[in-house]
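Morning F.,

Quick status update on the modeling queue. The single chain you submitted on Monday has been processed. Sequence for confirmation:
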Amino acid sequence: MNFFILDPYTNNNWRLVKDTAGGYGTGNDFGDNFLSKGLNKFVSKMISMPPMYSMYVYSILKMKNCKTEYSKEFEEEKIKNADYVILTSSIICHETEIETLKKLNSIGKKVFVIGIFGNVMKERYKLKNTHVVKGEPESFFLNLNTTEKKFVDIFFTDDKSEISNSLVVENLDSLPFPDWKYYSSKYDLKNNFLAFNSKIAIPIVATRGCPYSCFNYCTYPLQQGRKVRFRSVKNVIEEIKYWIKNLNTNKFIFRDPVFSINRKYTEELCKEIINENLKINFLIETHLKNLDDELIDLLKNAGLEMVYVGIESSNSEVLGDIKRFTINNDEQYKIIKKLVDKNIYVKSMFMFGNPGDDENTIKKSIEYSAFLPNQFVQYSVFTPYPGTPVYNLFEKKIIEQKYEKFNQYNLIYKHENLNNSKITKLKNYAYRKFYFRVSKFPIIAKSILSLVIR
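Structure tokens below.
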């Protein structure tokens, strides 16, 4: 049986990653002045990866002895020869995906649509000869009977499938490792901010699911649920060893929604990395409330080199308005300082255009971001995503008709105090204020050199 995984993208001058924002994807449109446009192009060359679920599905089908290919391009001849096409879905490339789906429809291809945005916006993707896969696509394809076409074709009829399928993968150890060797032979797989070299950076996940209160506006619970599922430490270590051996890299990007959500598990994993003497460099995203001196030391000894932390705003009332729980500003400073003192790079992430924001609160957040000892910063824009609880409050205020503009860098709803033009100016100002300082020149130089250093 022959499958073709098609992962189409729009043509933009900034980084597009469908895996981020809980599988909705983000597109780093930093602004429209000279510096911001330069950052757009620069970051697009520094970071590149596909949606992880697409490569899990690729590996599952290969495990079932199906001929399978992955491509970002519409390779017409290969598509015509495929029995089935698997199309990735996202918000950041939605209109492009729909046009691609129509093109596939016109040549009579049977298409499986995968990804959480396809689930949320099912009716938009549901054309003739199209089946929108419910839940985690890995679960569906693990259960799919590929011994004969009749078992697959049933999903393109009005009949109901006899397969009893879980919407999530309960046992994450049952998944094969995503075939990053195959992917990296065709496309870049990198995050040059980690270790400041252009070695392959392996996306890896230890846990899925997030129970935190920011599910009010966050899409990760839509994709993975609120119950946390864990791979065994042994299974994670086996994958790390596999890629060290087979791709000669020691760079790993943990894509867990909150890496240190379970302290006991985190400690066990770190200790095993140390005991195995793996000597890796890795990046995590976590909540500052989960970090203390002891855990920071353990993470550092295991190879932690970079941390992403969400701060969103310096104003507690603005945070309360979006139900974002955090620790107070003094504690944020102390923990970030501890990380930096251990030679761990920190990227603090802020969000403009929150419902309670005005120009003054945003400028105070910009000042606060420059005051913190973090080496990197990201300023995105509050986006009420379809499918999240907060969307119901904003649906009638949405002013942007094109979903590809929901890239977390545009103001897509009618705000009481701000408009998109003002947000763009604030983004321009924020990046200029943060990075155009003498103290940032060494980190900028390292970043630029990472494009050529292996």
